[in-house]
Amino acid sequence: MKCVMIINEELPLGLIANTAAVLAMSVGEKIKGIIGPDVQDKGGENHSGITRLPIPLLRGNSQSIAATRQALLKADPAELYFVDFCDVAQKCKDYDDYIKLMSEQVEEQLQYLGLAICGPDKLVKSLTGQMGLLR
Predict the structure, then answer these.
(1) Distance between CA atoms of residues 9 and 4, nearest Å
(2) How far does CA 103 lie from the centroid of its chain?
């Protein structure tokens, strides 16, 4: 399995970090087994489990993220999990606000901040292999 995040490189650093955090929480909730067990250091101190997989952050912009999302909609949902994060979600004060505001939008109005994709290595690479790392 491979997981990647495509983050809009045009965002300020704080929004890049927030976008990655929101996407990571969503992936952690939906992908069973992605978080490893707690571990102990040599002194016996406990450290909570972290992701078992590396999750590279890739460069994108709102248009490339939207195009990748459209390609994902054509993929088999049993093979791929993806979650997007857009300007509407970022501006909301709570989830009820998000539900309401999203119901008033059409997809073409959304400005994408990020997208996380998890699935078979080859399939994820075919969708994202041309994208560089966000640095």
Answers:
(1) 15
(2) 21
